[in-house]
């Protein structure tokens, strides 16, 4: 005589078990994703502010060394004041910087730089005003 097991020999999950797992996963994602994307935006904003600070510091050092402002950001790289033109993480480019000329007659020179990205940061300030 063959003894049958008390439990069914079938393996796997029932439809109800799968639906419960999917519902829990969806609930966790609805909580986590907004925080994740918010953190990404905050980090881009922080990187933008740091890149602006680095460029402005390099422009100041260039002016202190040579007595004139650079003609472009590439001149800062050529003079080794920067290793490369920093990336604007909001505009997603290294060529979207707004170059501000110095007051006076020095046309074609760069005294300051601003972000070319449209919109406002997490603190409500426009990116162009940083």
Keywords:
single chain, mainly alpha, 2 helices, 2 strands
Account of the 3D structure:
The chain is mostly helical and 130 residues long. The protein is 45% helix and 5% strand. It has helices at 15-66, 73-78; strands at 98-100, 112-114. A two-stranded antiparallel sheet has the order 1-2. The longest helix is centred in the first third of the chain and has 52 residues, at 15-66. The protein is rod-shaped. It starts with 14 loop residues before the first helix and ends in a 16-residue tail after the last strand. InterPro entries: Bac_GSPG_pilin, N_methyl_site, Pilin-like. Residues 101-130 are annotated as: Disordered. Keywords: Membrane, Methylation, Transmembrane, Transmembrane helix. The chain crosses the membrane at residues 12-33. This is Type II secretion system GspH family protein.
């Amino acid at each position: 005589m063959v003894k049958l097991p008390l439990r069914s020999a079938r393996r796997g999950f029932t439809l109800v078990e799968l639906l419960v797992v999917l519902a829990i996963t969806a609930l966790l994602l609805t909580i986590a994703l907004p925080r994740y994307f918010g953190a990404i935006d905050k980090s881009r904003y922080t990187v933008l502010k740091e890149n602006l600070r680095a460029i402005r510091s390099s422009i100041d050092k260039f002016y202190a060394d040579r007595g004139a402002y650079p003609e472009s950001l590439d001149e800062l790289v050529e003079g080794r004041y920067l290793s490369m033109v920093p990336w604007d993480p909001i505009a997603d480019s290294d060529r979207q910087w707004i170059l501000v000329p110095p007051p006076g007659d020095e046309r074609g020179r760069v005294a300051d730089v601003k972000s070319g990205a449209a919109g406002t940061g997490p603190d409500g300030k426009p990116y162009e005003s940083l």
